[in-house]
Amino acid sequence: MKEYAFGVDIGGTTIKLGLFKTNGTQMDSWEIPTRIEECGRYIMEDIGRAIKKKIDDKGLTLNQVAGIGLGVPGPIGEDGTVYNCVNLGWGVFNVEQKLSSITGIKVKAGNDANVAALGEMWQGGAKGHRNVVMITLGTGVGGGIIIGEKILAGTHGAGGEIGHFPMVDSETETCGCGKQGCLEQYASASGIAKTAGKWLNKRDTPSVLRNMKDISAKEIFDSAKAGDQMSVDLVEFFGEQLGKACAYISCVADPEVFVIGGGVSKAGSIVTDVIEKYYQKYAFHASRNTEFVLAALGNEAGMYGSVRLVLE
Amino acid sequence: MKEYAFGVDIGGTTIKLGLFKTNGTQMDSWEIPTRIEECGRYIMEDIGRAIKKKIDDKGLTLNQVAGIGLGVPGPIGEDGTVYNCVNLGWGVFNVEQKLSSITGIKVKAGNDANVAALGEMWQGGAKGHRNVVMITLGTGVGGGIIIGEKILAGTHGAGGEIGHFPMVDSETETCGCGKQGCLEQYASASGIAKTAGKWLNKRDTPSVLRNMKDISAKEIFDSAKAGDQMSVDLVEFFGEQLGKACAYISCVADPEVFVIGGGVSKAGSIVTDVIEKYYQKYAFHASRNTEFVLAALGNEAGMYGSVRLVLE
Hints:
The structure is a homodimer.
Chain A: E1 4-10, E2 14-21, E3 26-33, H1 37-40, H2 43-57, E4 65-72, E5 81-83, E6 92-94, H3 95-103, E7 107-111, H4 112-123, E8 132-137, E9 141-147, E10 150-151, H5 184-187, H6 189-202, H7 217-225, H8 229-252, E11 257-261, H9 269-282, E12 291-294, H10 301-310
Parallel strand pairs in A: 1-4, 4-7, 8-11, 11-12
Antiparallel strand pairs in A: 1-2, 2-3, 5-6, 8-9, 9-10
Helix pairs in contact in A: 2-3, 4-10, 6-8, 7-8, 8-9
């Protein structure tokens, strides 16, 4: 009878909501603003109200709803306790209990990077696999690790925090985390652009990038495709950092497939190709044939994954 | 009624066997030689015979035996299939089915490094924890990863193969795996000794190590404790490689505790202290307080862990 479930992905400005069939078909999706004022105290009520309204509008009953899955942008314990979601102003409380008491529906919550990985495993680029690592290349570098169809959240919520792999010992600039030389400083959208800026200052070689203002990762990948040598070198450097990082991941978690998502992945197969090239250089032989695929669900992966989480 | 279980750890020259109570108490232990002749075809029968004899000698019945746990020195699938255990001469076959058909007892098998980690979690240095990474510093560098009390074996049996983390890009010598610059080349017993040999050749600094023939890891740690500067530097180099490696592991699996075992760990807390020192330099802040402990079960960890495995 329980043929429906809701997926909710809470972002810093927008909350994405979706109504799904429990077989994974999305029936409806919509957004509401994230009200972070007063330490984000209205967020749970806003979500609860939105879901109850959707249930009414669709003429559903609570008995038909298997649950609500929730992706939150911060560390979260196995029992549903969030620990200081700074983007939302949240302190420490149990989001599952809170939303469940508002809606009368079972709730299961996970970290957003982890539920996105679960979503790509369930209905996206890694469909059909059970051991999946998703790497999200956006403003930062996020990771989500799925072992035997379950999220590896980690003791301190740091499972899959691969953006903070120590990669370059000689780095003098400091990462947002306080260390120097983290993967995120080279492989995120801003990291790629920053590296380009440094190389343009340091080197004399001509490059189409010199004519651009505010170089973005997209322009670097586009210029590399068009044959600009410095852009090609930048893409290789990016690929070497990520390929080596994936080799570390395989020596620990040994997934079947790496799913590459986030804004940078919109450049397409050039991204997975260059990562895979360097992965094969650094990977232990037993895992050298691990697949690399592009993410397929875009920014709906978190919604899909949170549904999968509550259906476990 | 099933109050007993057997633990078996198959090594290249000796098979360790133990009779345990299911609460973890070891009742008896003994060894038999590993007959690797004729592609190791007698190994399973030898183990079966040894266990049946022990059951008779102790006046037990099959009904009292919960199972036999088996640690094997090579990759093994979830269903009990071994894939080319080169040390034993084995090809591809299902060890669980084979030993079970010989003994009439339930059998569960795992990779030896992984079951050792499970043993340390159950009754050793990591007792009371659920997320554990064990690092074995012996001839090579092995790793076993336990998440939620379960072994993370990996898609290709490479879960925890941390000895092959790519650590030093400039390395010219080749590791046993075919790559250059693997962790094992610096952090194994032989790796430490080899690094010492290189440094003694390259540097002019005085050291008590110059008076020794065939320097071992133990002598280097002993000399470091006695204040020999080159030995101190060697221990620091060793600690930096392993500390950084543990930082990678934490960004993926985020354990509660690292258990350090193997021959090198006999040098004592100097080993865990220097690894922890560099771990704190490289680790992501959320996992910076992860504990480091010495292994407690020595070369019986595999026996304990295989028992724990069959009791799951």
